[in-house]
Amino acid sequence: MASDQDFCECRPLGFFIGLPFALLSLILSLIGAIIWIIGSILSCCCPCCICCTGLLNVAVCLIKLPVRILRWFVNKIPC
Q1: 15 and 67 in contact (C-beta within 8 Å)?
Q2: CB neighbour list of residue 14: distance below 8 Å, 6 or more residues apart
Q3: Residue 29: which of 53, 56, 64 has the closest Cα?
Q4: Is the distance from CB of 60 to CB of 32 less than 8 angstroms?
Q5: Exposure of 59 by Cβ count < 10 A (0-12 exposed, 13-18 middle, 19+ buried)?
Q6: Which of 9, 30, 55, 74 is most buried as measured by Cβ atoms within 10 A of its Cβ?
Q7: In terms of pTM, does the model score above 0.90?
Q8: Span 42-73, pLDDT tens digits
Q9: Membrane spanning segments where (predicted)?
């Protein structure tokens, strides 16, 4: 895998095409962060809630979504 410096070096078009979608996913990321905070507090108060771990995993995936979308778009554009 290339370093972070090579991420958009020769493919700025993919970065700019993916930017609106990354901004939309940023909203989902904020929702994921709120779910993660609430789920963390809930799992600390009541560790017997096993469903909180699944909810926290979904929230972490939502938080990582903007970066995944940008990388996907950048990788689709040939160098």
Answers
A1: no
A2: 8, 73, 74, 75, 76, 77
A3: 64
A4: yes
A5: buried
A6: 74
A7: no
A8: 878 777 766 677 777 888 888 888 888 878 87
A9: 12-39
